[in-house]
Every structure is written in structure tokens, then in C-alpha cells.
Hints:
Chain A is α+β, with helices and mostly antiparallel strands. Helix content of chain A is 50%, strand content 7%. The first copy, chain A, folds into two domains: 4-264, 2-methylcitrate dehydratase PrpD (Orthogonal Bundle), CATH 1.10.4100; 272-389, CATH 3.30.1330.120. Chain A is globular.
Amino acid sequence: MKDITRTLARYACAARFDDLPSAVRGEGVRALVNYVGCAAGGAHEDDVDLMVRFLGEFDGGAQATLVGRSERLDILNAAFINSMSSAALAFNDTHFITVAHPTSPVAAALLALAERRPMTGRDLLHALVLGVELQCRAGMILTVPPAVSAVGLSMQGMVGSIGAAVAAAKVLQLDETGMTTAIGLAANQSAGLREAQSTMASHYTPGHAARCGLAAALLAARGFECSGSMLEGAKGFAVSFAQQPNLAAAIDGLGERFEISTLAYKPYPAGVVIHPIIDACLEIVREQPLDAGQIERVELRLNPLAAKLTNVVDPKDRGQALVSFQHWTVSTLLYGAAGIAQVANTIVRERTVAELRRKVSFVNDESVSREAAHVRVVLKDGSVRVASVSHCRGSVERPLTDADITTKTEDQLRMVFAPERARAIVAQSWRIETLTDLGPFCRALAQENEHRSAGA
Amino acid sequence: MKDITRTLARYACAARFDDLPSAVRGEGVRALVNYVGCAAGGAHEDDVDLMVRFLGEFDGGAQATLVGRSERLDILNAAFINSMSSAALAFNDTHFITVAHPTSPVAAALLALAERRPMTGRDLLHALVLGVELQCRAGMILTVPPAVSAVGLSMQGMVGSIGAAVAAAKVLQLDETGMTTAIGLAANQSAGLREAQSTMASHYTPGHAARCGLAAALLAARGFECSGSMLEGAKGFAVSFAQQPNLAAAIDGLGERFEISTLAYKPYPAGVVIHPIIDACLEIVREQPLDAGQIERVELRLNPLAAKLTNVVDPKDRGQALVSFQHWTVSTLLYGAAGIAQVANTIVRERTVAELRRKVSFVNDESVSREAAHVRVVLKDGSVRVASVSHCRGSVERPLTDADITTKTEDQLRMVFAPERARAIVAQSWRIETLTDLGPFCRALAQENEHRSAGA
């Protein structure tokens, strides 16, 4: 299949905002709102603090806002931090077909650029939709059957840089060759391994993708050159990262179907494959709570991907617990909720919780979809409670409502901003399409030093 | 196979310079001398100019020298440029088993660090040897049979960051955990596709590797965390980038055999797999020159890798011609030499040369080694000239002498420095082991503005 990179580039260059279906624009706004909350919510994680200090040593000057923080960094470094922080609580959006988290690197690159050159809300929205679209389509080359890619390749690392590059190249108004080069330079920096999961390094990956992608677009704008066939070439992205890559998946229905319409927003800060388990556990304890002493064992029937990605029986800290299906099973059953509070280190390290995690068994079942799970809790008194979920909350079939996203986003913004300010930021984010200059919007996402103690 | 990453890290931390065989130290010096010339020779290529200007926009200050240039950049950006420039003429060293070019990112990271903290010549040499060693061994996981990796994965991109990280972590005196983290963070940034070959982007790859690797070590020093099993883990480097990865190859004979002893230094600025063809062509015209009008056709019998990597019948410019076996075959036969002059754009675009390139045919022959080639020139008068090379110049069996390396290095240094200065730099590079502070050595590699016109 020829000219895939150029076909995608030509589409992105020619696309006009007014041609987007209004539902697609609406999804762009939802993605942005959700992103803003996630970036603020993760802004003061230890690893983000560390990266801000580190990048500050190698920084070209206070060019752009860091969401939820008081420092400013150059636009490449700001893109890094604003993508990293939005992934730090694993609360960002998901494209299920690829298991990528596409909005983080795209929105982070765009917000950084918006403080360097004039950009309207419509510019940002359109570039965001396109960056998500081409990123997801690049990922589908590697993941839509018959394609098979190694489970170790982090999909957000593989394609996040491509998304950031496309979005930045669109607002920079690059021509077809420039856009092709931006995609190519981004693919040349695709990187990230799932072995890093649940360590600081797993949050480095989306930050790095945003920085590399934004650099790719800026370099293309300055005349840096790359092969025009980086995705489909004989030594390119597709054959390097997949067996039987599916090049057709990258262009089927381009401009007609929009991948942003299939994004899922997480109701829980857990690995997405764990969400149906959480929903089932919530159902089991909704009417009648359980305490640790009552539970004999828990049996799960799951899509095989769940255990492949999140089988962590003995997490040491919150980072590991976020992607432990055993931890979420137990904490949800015991606390009747699945928020940031239920993965606090104190709960992760509690002896009762640790012991119960070892009593969670699972069976892989290919007939169970990735959005489904069956949970069976056997109690010490011999009774059994069961729940099955076919489509988890936040999945395409059961999307979060706009009100759900507002609630989730405000909750996270309140981790760094006073409540009225959090409300104002959410309201402005929903109105992004009406803003004629994003500069003030971006600067309003900064945290003034003196407000920290009030919010934290 | 368990604990590969940690085993490598433990070795690198415990290693002492005085325990290195003197031949290994000597190879370290040869690698450094060769590197210095390559970095100067490529310092004013168009793509390097462009990257210096670009990185200058996002730079933390004049911390380190750029070899052969007058600008100074922060150490991450300097590491990028000094690795990129040393690869820009494809004249850097080669580790044949992996087809990586290990010294570039390692030496570039070390020279940058040497201006930030005190470093002796012995410190640099030892770290260089270790960075080359562990980088090559990581690459061997992917390339030593039964391992098979996709031909599109750039090996210098896959492992260069690991080499730079190990070397920097050694001079930073990180402990075993820090070294393990540095290797892991570097592997998490392994990136680069051979589809970019012969474009500017292919020189971006080694620059990026140096920057990412140095950042990995600095981050590990500051407490950033990563999985301890990034190379061997179930979702790690080995299984992500190879079928049947050879983990044993990473640790077999560790501390006894040294991969730096197997490095090849290029006598010609061509893709290494082309070198035996060049040697054979030189032999054919040594006694009796040929001119274009005499040649009917040229038939090559080659190891299959040669055509797999360098089959470029119609290169558009020097960048593409550097990795075109057809171009080197023709230009060597016509000009009786194979230097930078024989890939000048004027020669690449000459009609006679272009026509003759189309008359070069090849046969793949698995029985021909990668260091061998058979060349048969059929002349219009019906006569035939043949030459066979079993080990090309610059291969392990036929290494360049120290004098060859001096000549090659001085030639390149003279592209930017006055002759007496070039000679002085080469002489000091050979004496690197005796230097107690590398700061002045590094600063002496800078080009004063006013000298450019004299040298260029």
C-alpha cells in the first residue's frame, strides 16, 4: 500500500473546521475539558516535580504555562510537562482499539504553542481533532487485525508523538510536504516500553512524546527533511513495530469516520482494562457493604488483555496499584468507591488489603470483551455475590455524560485551585470554541504561588 | 533469563580502569580520536546548522562546546549536536554484529559532561569503553542469532541512548540502582527507523540518542525511577524489538571479551556494507585507470545485507549517495578514490555517473560474508576485470592502523581548523589518557569565528 504518510498529511492539510460534523467538534471539546482536569490533577505528583526541576536546568526561557503550576518553561519543555502531568494519575482518555491515550500529547503541544503564536479556540479544537485522528490511525496500523504488535510497545509512546506533530503542524499551517515530514520525524522518535508501567518512567513516555512531536513539527517548519514514506516504507514504522501491519486501517473512511468519537473518558483513575471489574464490584456492594473479614475469595472472568496488562498482585505504592486489577477489586469491594483516595499509599500498604489481593483469582476468557467482566465474591458464610458488566462506564456504549466530565474535571482542578476558580476554568474550557485568543486561557491555567496551600 | 539489566549495571558500576586490558584502553583511544575527526568533519553540514539554530531556541545556556563550531549550548543540546555531526558524513565507527555506530552518542555525552564537572582523560576513556560495551551488548540481544529484529529498526537509535546513559552514569558515579535506572530510562527512549536513511532525519537519530541517554543518566542521578528489568522483562526491550531475543548474548563473557575490540573504523565515508565493494573497485583500477566510455557493465556478488541496506540506484544528492552501493561502485572505478570528494553533489548528479549506476547489477549470495565482495567489470572491448575482497579495509581482520586513523582524522579536522591546529588536536586526542582535566581539551575543539574561512 503506497503513500499512506502522504495521504494522511494531505488530508490533515486540506481539512477545514467547518466541515467537521458538529458531534465531532463536541467530542473535541469533551476531550479538551477532560484533559485540562487531568493535567491539573497530576501537576504536583513527585515525578512531575522532579521533571520540572530537571527541565528547568535545560530550558530556553519562560515561554509557556504549566497547567496547575506556577513555573513557566520553554514550549518544548512545557509540552513535556503538560502531557506528563495529564497522564500521571492514569486518568486521561483512551482509544480502545490501540490502547493509546491520544489527547494528552496533542493538547499539551497545542497549549504550549498557543502562548507563542496567536491561536483561536477553533484553531486549537480543529488541530486537536486532527492530532487525535491521525495518531489513532497510525496506531491502528499496528493493532487492527491481522496486525500484531509486541505487548511491550507502549502505544501512547509509539503514536503520541505523531499526534502532537500533526496538531502542531496544522496550526503552523505547514503544507503537505511539511506535514509529511512532521509525521515522519515524529515516527522516527516513537518510543516507550510497557515494562516501565507503574513507575515514574511510564509518565515520562507521554511527556517525551509531546516534546518530540512538537519538535518534529517545528523542525519541519524550518526545513528539516525526512523520508516521505516513514509509516509505510520497507524500513518504516509499520513493518518495524508490527507483524502483518494493517496499512489500510490508517486510511479507511478517512474524513468520514472520526476516531475521536470512540474515545473513552475514565470514571476511575485505573488502567482502563480494570474498569469493568470496578463497575461489577461497585454493583456488588451498592446495596450491602462488605468488610474484609467476610470475604473468602474473589473469582474474576476477564478478557485476556486485562491480566496481560494489569496482573500486579502485590503493588508497592500508588503507582503500581493504579494498574493492579487485584488492588482495585479489593479496594472497591471494601470502600465502595474507586477514586484517587482508594489508591493512597496507606491503603495500598494496608495488611488486610494486601492479604485480600492474594485471594483474587482470574480466568482468561476470549469471549469476554475488553469492556466486560464477571466478578464472583465467595463469602466465608458460604454465600456468593455475583455481578457481570458487559460495557463498563466510560466505554463507547456507556459514555460519561458531559456532567460526569464536569464533575471529574472540577474534582481534579480543586486539587490545585480554589473551588470558584476550578468552576470558572471548567466553564471556559467548555466554551473553548468561542475564544478568539487562547493566550489568556492558557495563562489562567497557571497556579499562583500563594494559592497552593488553599487548594492542596 | 533474569536480571540482565541489573547484571550489566552491576558490572559497569564495579569496573575499574586499571583492570582493563591495555589493548582495550588502546581501542578506547582509537575510538575517541576517530570520533573527534568525524564530529569536526560533519560540523558544518546543512542539517547540523539547522539543528544548532533550532536547539538554540530551546537552550539552557552556553554550557558546552560544539566540536568544530563557535556556538556553545547546554549539555543536553551539545550532546545532541556532537553526536549528530559525527554521524553526518557516515564516517563514524561500526560494530558489525549490530550495525550500530557506538562511539558517537557515548563520546558526545561525555564531552558535554566534561565541561560541567571535573573529568580526567582516564575517567572519559573508561566510561567510553563501558558505554560502547553495554550498548553493543544490548544490541546483540536483538541481532545475535536466533534473534531476528525488523530491518527497519535503526540499531544506533535502539542502543545509542543506552550507551550514552551508561557512560554518563559511570562518570556521575551512580550506584547499581542508579545505573539500572539510567539503562532503563534510555531503553524507554530507544527510537529510530531506517526508512529515514539518507535524509537529514537519519542524522537526527544518533543526536537524539545521545541527548536521551545523557538525560536518562542525569535523571537517574536525581532520583527518577524506572523498572529494573527494562531489557529482559516480559514487556521490555528484548521482546519488543526482536523475535527470539538472545538475552544470553548480553552477558556472555562480560568483563572478559570487549566489544570495543571489534569496532571497525571506516576508511571511506560510505555505508559499511559498501566498503568491500570499494576495496575491490580500487584494486581493479589501481594499475590501470578506467574511463566511463570503456565500461559496458558491472556485476557484483554480495552478502544480501549490502543490497538490503544500500540499494539506491538513483541517488539525488550526497546524502543518498553515501548509502548507494551503485554510486560508490561507479565513482570509485572512475576516480580511483573513495573520499568525501567522490560523493559531492556535482558528481552524484553527473549524467555519465548516473547512466553507469544503472549498469551495476548484483547477485545476493549468502556465502559471501558481510566484509567481502566480488566485482566483475565487463568492458566494451570484451575484456573483463575482476577483483575479490574477503576482508575489507577497516574490518576487524584488516584494521586501520593508528597512522590511518591519524590521517583520516586530520583530513576531517582540516575541514574546519588550520592545519597546525588540526595536527595539535589529533596529537592531544591520542594522549587523552594523560590529561587530568578535560575542560581545556573540550574548549580547544571549538572553532573561533574568524578561523572558519581559513579552514573551510
